[in-house]
Design goal:
The chain has 22 helices and twelve strands. With about 550 residues, it is mainly alpha-helical. A hairpin with a 2-residue loop joins strand 1 and strand 2. The chain is elongated and about 110 Å long.
Amino acid sequence: MTTARRNGLSGLEAQALLLAVGPNEPVPKPRQRLVVQLLRRFASPLVAILLLACVASAAAGDLQNAAIIVVMVGLSVIIDFVQTHRSERAAASLQTKVAHTATALRDGVFREVLRRDLVPGDVIRLSAGDMAVSTAYEVDGRIEQLDEVARQRARATFEQLGGKGYRVLAVAYASVERRARFSKADEHDLTLAGFLAFVDPPREDARSVLVELRREGIDVKVLTGDGDLVARHVCESVGVPVENTLVGAEIEKMSDPALAHRAERTHLFARVSPAQKTRILAALRSRGHVVGFLGDGINDAPSLHTADVGISVANAVDVARDAADIILLEPNLLVLLAGVREGRKAFGNVMKYLLMGTSSNFGNMLSMAGAVIFLPFLPMLPGQILLNNLLYDLAQLTIPTDNVDASFLQKPRRWDIDVVRRFAFIIGPVSSLFDFATFAFLIGIFHASERSFHTGWFVESLATQTLVILVIRTMGSPLRSRPSLALGLSVMAIVAIGCALPFTPLGAWLGFVPLPAAYFVFVLVATTAYMALVELVKRLVVRRAFP
């Protein structure tokens, strides 16, 4: 080997080669320019339909509706583009933090470099993973062939060390003739020299975090290849129950149903093989549990694939990180706990959005279908409908910032489409009931003209479906559970805009007319009654699903 090769490449040589041959990675998918990404959103089927409607309106001379559609589509596309772009940038930033590295010899020193920065001529050191650091050892004072007494003493030493949490490695030797190869058959008549004891203590915060995880409804189980003595000591030190410990030899004799039964009641599985770990995870999933698995070694990859959620850490071996769904950037269980809480919060806010959106859309559809039966005109113009939907969507943009009830976060939740369906099928008709009351009020009492009717329903529809967000957003009482500041302000701002719009020049251009003060009193009463009825239905339908 030449001196240059023994010392590896220099930093300057590696940089020059990287510029010459390019990064060490598959050819990346060409990244589209931002302008192209923005224009591609106009190819969406829904956007295309709206643009065709715009062209049709313009061709028919209805420039007002054509302009409204253009504005609505433009705003929707821009909001979608900005949010997607921000998400992609965040994902790319996280990807750089967990990028694969390699140990390469540069300037005579082995150092970690990004894999993509490897170049031809690099000397690379391969390793299966990091080894535990030996912090204690114990050696027999006398070196001797093991008789029965010595065997008992050796076993006692082994069990004593294991009971203290040490991983123990026996060191033995034999005098043999020099030869090219040795095999397992040569391992006989060995003399015990002593034991090497290794310690890998748990993190100081492990016990407190495990307590918090149990409070969140997460049952923590330990699956390890270590012996049961070591595993018991570690588990006891962090508060994991060890009463019903299962070892690999027992698991090997069990059928899958029997293992599933025992696995639910067991928290420590010791001396288990990688294949047995995957059996345990599959057994728990077969009993209806959602299973997460945290691992960082080569042998953990199959289990990371088997679990519902595979979790690894940034300094894990590459194969474990590739198999994981989630990578913790810090080797800290508090990060995992925070992730659980944030995930439940996100799930809660997604459920709010679905309950609001489906019930509102279903109710509007019923109201529109019912209105065309007895009205000689459209209950609302197409452009006004689009504006109503846009304002309602803007009010919901701040839902991700909303607070989630502590009771909702206390235990895991499952996705249930039946809850969404039942809620929409009940709240939708309730919403239509108040819409029909509004129609009767506008026609029977106010003797509204066509434009007044359009304006009146626009205001009532926007007020009820927007303010009811404050009721649906919580499983508890909306009077005690406060929304986030952003959501509260956005809801009130949209309602205020809807009420003020008919009195502005823009409102007149949109086809609205000013409404009398008495009508706003009716809207206030109708909205209050609607919110109260929705609260009652919520208690009967949603609380049963999310107690």
